[in-house]
C-alpha cells in the first residue's frame, strides 16, 4: 500500500528542504516593505528555495524575542532570525545557539565588505556569527512640518534648551502633547538621546563600558530633564507602540517624535509626505547606531537555504533592495546612493563623518537582560516619576548586567 499514497507537490519528500523560514519582527509598513525588497533579491538569487515569512509583529521585537527564545529552548529554531549586532548577538553566541560563518565570509568575499568596527561586533574569539543587513540611526527627531509652522517654529533646535523652548511654543499654540511617545523601549530611546546631549558621546559610551558612574550627579540632572520632557508627551504612552506615537505625528496631534530611522521608511510607506527630521537637539554630530543582522542557528532545518539567504543579505544588490525601503543605510561600504530616498542619502553622508555611539534597547550596547531591566525601570518611572528610584534601578541594572570591574 505504501506506493499508492498520493502526495501533493508540497508534500513530496524533500519539499520541506526548499523552505527557508525567516524570523523577524518586520510585519507591517516600512519594515515589511524592507523585508519584501530583500525577499525580491532572494527570489532572484536563490530560485531553488522558498521564502517562508516567520514575522511576529511588535516594534523592536517586543513580542518576537520572547517567541524566539522559547523556540530556541525547545530546539525548534527558524532557519534564520534577525539579531542585533553587538551585545545582543553575544547572548546567542554565549548560549551556543549559532553556527560560525567565518568560512562563508571568506567564500563570499565579505571580510572587507563591512566596516571593521561592525565586524568586531559580530565576532567572538575570532569567529563571525552573523551577516549584517544595515545600519540604522536611533537618535532622530521626526516632525510634522505643518504643526511646527503653525506654532512659528522655522528652525530645528540644536540644544536641549532650544528644544524645551519650542515645546513651550507648541503648547502655547494649542498642541497639548507636542512630543509623541510610546512604551518601554521607545522611552529608553528618548532617555538615551537626552543622555547623549547631557553627557556627550564619550561619557555616554562609558555608561555601557563601565567608565561612567550611573550614580553620578550628571545622571540625576539628566533624569530630572527627562522628567520635564515627559510632561510634553501623551499620558497614554505606556500603551503605545512606536507606530501609535507616529500616528499622532501624522494626524497633527503631536509635532515631534524621537525614533529610529525606520520611521522614514514607514512614513513613506504610509504616504505621509509632510515630515521633517533632525538629529535630537544637543546630539551634535553623534550617530547612535544599531545594525540588524541574520544568523544561521544551530539545528536549522535548511542550512543550505539559509546560507543562500545570508549570501543575499550580504550582497550589494540585496543591501540596496532592502535598505532603500527600510530607512536604514547599507552596512556594506561599496553601495552607491543611487535609488535611495533623500533621508538615507543624508544618513549615508553623516555615517562617514559622525561620532558613533551604541543603543541599549537595540542591542548594540547591551544584552537582553540589561535591556529588560532598563525597560522595566523606565516603565515604572513613566508611572511614578520617582527620580531617585529610577537612578537606583539603572545603577543596579548596570551592576548586574554591565561589565564587571
Ligand atoms: C529595531 C530594529 C529595526 C526596526 C525597529 C522597530 O530593533 O533593529 O530594524 O525594526 O526595531 O521595530
Descriptive overview:
A hairpin with a 2-residue loop joins strand 4 and strand 5 (127-128). Helix 8 packs across helix 15 (368-384). The chain has 405 residues and is of the alpha/beta class. Residues 1-14 have low confidence and may be disordered. The longest helix is centred in the middle third of the chain and has 26 residues, at 184-209. It has 16 helices and 14 strands. The chain has a 5-stranded mixed β-sheet, with helices on both faces. It has a 4-stranded mixed β-sheet with strand order 9-10-8-11. Strands 7-12-14 form a 3-stranded mixed β-sheet, sandwiched between helices. The chain is globular. The chain has helices spanning 29-45, 64-73, 87-94, 102-107, 116-120, 145-150, 160-172, 184-209, 217-230, 242-250, 262-269, 303-314, 316-326, 342-353, 368-384, 387-401, and strands at residues 19-23, 50-53, 80-84, 123-124, 127-128, 131-132, 136-137, 140-144, 179-180, 256-259, 275-279, 286-290, 292-294, 355-358. Beta-D-galactopyranose is lined by residues 25-26, 31, 59-61, 84, 136, 260, 262, 290, 292, 362. Beta-D-galactopyranose binds at residues 25-26, 31, 59-61, 84, 136, 260, 262, 290, 292, 362.
Amino acid at each position: 500500500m505504501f506506493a499508492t499514497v498520493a502526495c501533493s507537490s508540497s508534500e513530496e519528500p524533500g519539499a520541506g528542504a526548499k523552505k527557508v523560514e525567516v524570523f523577524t519582527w518586520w510585519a507591517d509598513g516600512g519594515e515589511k516593505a524592507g523585508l519584501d525588497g530583500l525577499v525580491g533579491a532572494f527570489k532572484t538569487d536563490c530560485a531553488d528555495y522558498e521564502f517562508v515569512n516567520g514575522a511576529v509583529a511588535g516594534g523592536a521585537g517586543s513580542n518576537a524575542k520572547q517567541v524566539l527564545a522559547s523556540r530556541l529552548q525547545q530546539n525548534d529554531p527558524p532557519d534564520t532570525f534577525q539579531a542585533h549586532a553587538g551585545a545582543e548577538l553575544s547572548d546567542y553566541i554565549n548560549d551556543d545557539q549559532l553556527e560560525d560563518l567565518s568560512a562563508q565570509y571568506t567564500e563570499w568575499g565579505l571580510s572587507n565588505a563591512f566596516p571593521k568596527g561592525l565586524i568586531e561586533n559580530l565576532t567572538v574569539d575570532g569567529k563571525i556569527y552573523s551577516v549584517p543587513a544595515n545600519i540604522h540611526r536611533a537618535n532622530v527627531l521626526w516632525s510634522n512640518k505643518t504643526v511646527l509652522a503653525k506654532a512659528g517654529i522655522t528652525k530645528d533646535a540644536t540644544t536641549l534648551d532650544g528644544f524645551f523652548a519650542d515645546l513651550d511654543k507648541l503648547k502655547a499654540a494649542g498642541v497639548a502633547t507636542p512630543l509623541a511617545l510610546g512604551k518601554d523601549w521607545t522611552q529608553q530611546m528618548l532617555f538615551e538621546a537626552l543622555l547623549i546631549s547631557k553627557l556627550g558621546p564619550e561619557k555616554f559610551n562609558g555608561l555601557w563600558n563601565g567608565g561612567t558612574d550611573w550614580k553620578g550627579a550628571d545622571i540625576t540632572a539628566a533624569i530630572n530633564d527627562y522628567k520635564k520632557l515627559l510632561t510634553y508627551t501623551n499620558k497614554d504612552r505606556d500603551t503605545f507602540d512606536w507606530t501609535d506615537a507616529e500616528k499622532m505625528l501624522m494626524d497633527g496631534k503631536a509635532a515631534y517624535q524621537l525614533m529610529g530611522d525606520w520611521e522614514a521608511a514607514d512614513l513613506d510607506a504610509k504616504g505621509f509626505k509632510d515630515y521633517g527630521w533632525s538629529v535630537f537637539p544637543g546630539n551634535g554630530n553623534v550617530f547612535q547606531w544599531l545594525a540588524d543582522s541574520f544568523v544561521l542557528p544551530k539545528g536549522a532545518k535548511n542550512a543550505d537555504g539559509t546560507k543562500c539567504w545570508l549570501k543575499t543579505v550580504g550582497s550589494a544588490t540585496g543591501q540596496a533592495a532592502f535598505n532603500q525601503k527600510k530607512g536604514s543605510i547599507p552596512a556594506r561600504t561599496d553601495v552607491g546612493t543611487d535609488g535611495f530616498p533623500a533621508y538615507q542619502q543624508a544618513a549615508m553622508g553623516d555615517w562617514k563623518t559622525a561620532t558613533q555611539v551604541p543603543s541599549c534597547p537595540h542591542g548594540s550596547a547591551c544584552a537582553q537582560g540589561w535591556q529588560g531591566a532598563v525597560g522595566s525601570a523606565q516603565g515604572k518611572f513613566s508611572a511614578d516619576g520617582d527620580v531617585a528610584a529610577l537612578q537606583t534601578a539603572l545603577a543596579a541594572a548596570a551592576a548586574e548586567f554591565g561589565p564587571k570591574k
